[in-house]
Design a protein that fits this description.
alpha/beta, Rossmann fold, binds adenosine-5'-triphosphate, Alpha-Beta Plaits, globular, four-stranded antiparallel sheet
C-alpha cells in the first residue's frame, strides 16, 4: 500500500441542526496522516470534532468537503472498512452472550472461518488476561472486563487500522498496562492505531504522535516529546536544603523533592556547590518537562 494507512486532507464537516435551525462547523479543514505501525492520539476538549472525524472514517457520516482515505481507499468505498477494527466509547454487548459467542459473532461478521475465530479468540482473551472468562455471560463482567472484550472484538480479524475511543475507560492500572502492551504489539505488527482519549497521561505513555483539535481545527500536532518541551525547571532530591537556600534559588518543595527554577546551568551548579559545602548529598537531579496535560490545557485555553 502506498501512502499512510489513515489520511484526511482538508476535512470539513458542517452539521445542519433543526434545533437551532443553524449550522455547526464540527471540522474546519483538518489534515491528519497515520502511517502503518504508528500509535496516534487524537485529543481535544468536548465538542472539538474527534468523534466526527472517526465517524467520517467509518462512513457513518459524510464530510462536507475534503478527502478521507483508509489504506489508500476513499471512505465512500465499503472495501476501505474491511480491515478496520473499531471500539466505540461506552460500547454495549448483550448481557446474555458469553465472551466466546461475542467474538464468534464479530469474527463471522468480518468473514473469518470458525478455526481462525477459535484460535484468535483464545489468543486475544489470553493477552487481555480474561481467558478464564471465555464461557461466562457478559452480564457478569465488570466494566474493565467488558472493555477488554470490546477490544478483543475490535481486533478479532487482525485489522490493519484500529480506531479506538477511550480504550482504557474503566480499566484498572494493571489492565491499562496490558492494553498498552497489546496496542504496542499490534502497532509493531504494522497496524495504524488512532486513539481518542481524555486520559492525557495514558496518551502520553501510549502514543508516538498526537494531534490536538480545538473547534474543528488542528491546533498542535507532533511527537509527544516535541510537544512536551523541556521547561526551565529541575527536580532535585538532596539533603541539607534549608529554607534560606530554597528562597535563594526560587525553589519549592513538592512531594518530597525540590523543584528549582534556574536561568542557566551556572546557577544550578552554584546551588549544588552550596549543598555540598553544607555536607549535603544529592541523590537525584533531572530536568523537568511539561506534561501533555500542561500543553493541552494551554492550547485549549488560548
Ligand atoms: P466529545 O469529547 O464531547 O465526545 P468530540 O470532540 O467528539 O466531543 P464531536 O462529537 O465530533 O466532538 O462534535 C463536534 C461538534 O459537532 C459539536 O459542536 C457537536 O455539538 C456537533 N455535532 C456532533 N454531532 C452532531 C449532529 N449529529 N448534529 C449536529 N451537530 C452535531
Amino acid at each position: 500500500m502506498d501512502g499512510p494507512a489513515i489520511e484526511v486532507r482538508g476535512l470539513r464537516k458542517v452539521y445542519r441542526t433543526s434545533i437551532t435551525r443553524g449550522r455547526i462547523t464540527a471540522l474546519d479543514g483538518i489534515d491528519l496522516a497515520v502511517p502503518q505501525g504508528q500509535l496516534f492520539g487524537l485529543l481535544g476538549p468536548n465538542g472539538a470534532g474527534k468523534t466526527t472525524t472517526v465517524k467520517i472514517l467509518l462512513g457513518l457520516t459524510h464530510q462536507t468537503e475534503g478527502t478521507a482515505r483508509i489504506a489508500g481507499l476513499p471512505v465512500s468505498d465499503p472495501e476501505s472498512r474491511r480491515r478496520v477494527g473499531y471500539l466505540p466509547e461506552g460500547h454495549k454487548i448483550p448481557g446474555y452472550l458469553t465472551a466466546r459467542q461475542t467474538l464468534s459473532i464479530f469474527g463471522r461478521m468480518s468473514g473469518l472461518d470458525s478455526a481462525t475465530i477459535k484460535r484468535r479468540s483464545v489468543e486475544l482473551l489470553e493477552k487481555l488476561n480474561i481467558a478464564q472468562w471465555i464461557d461466562v455471560r457478559v452480564k457478569k463482567f465488570s466494566k474493565g472486563m467488558t472493555q477488554r472484550l470490546g477490544l478483543a472484538a475490535a481486533l478479532i480479524h487482525s485489522p490493519n487500522v484500529l480506531l479506538l475511543d477511550e480504550p482504557t475507560d474503566g480499566v484498572d492500572p494493571v489492565g491499562r498496562r496490558e492494553i498498552r502492551d497489546l496496542l504496542r504489539d499490534e502497532a509493531k505488527n504494522g497496524a495504524a492505531i488512532l486513539v481518542n482519549s481524555h486520559l492525557l497521561s495514558e496518551i502520553e505513555m501510549t502514543c508516538d504522535r498526537v494531534a490536538v483539535l480545538r473547534s474543528g481545527k488542528v491546533v498542535a500536532a507532533g511527537r509527544v516529546e516535541e510537544l512536551t518541551r523541556q521547561t526551565a525547571k529541575y527536580k532535585v532530591i538532596a539533603t541539607a536544603i534549608d529554607d534560606a537556600l530554597l528562597a535563594q534559588f526560587h525553589g519549592e518543595r513538592v512531594n518530597g523533592h525540590v523543584e528549582l527554577s534556574v536561568d542557566d546551568l551556572q546557577q544550578l551548579n552554584a546551588m549544588l556547590d552550596q549543598i555540598r559545602a553544607r555536607g549535603g548529598l544529592v541523590s537525584e537531579l533531572s530536568p523537568m518537562r511539561s506534561t501533555l496535560e500542561d500543553v493541552f490545557v494551554d492550547l485549549v485555553r488560548a
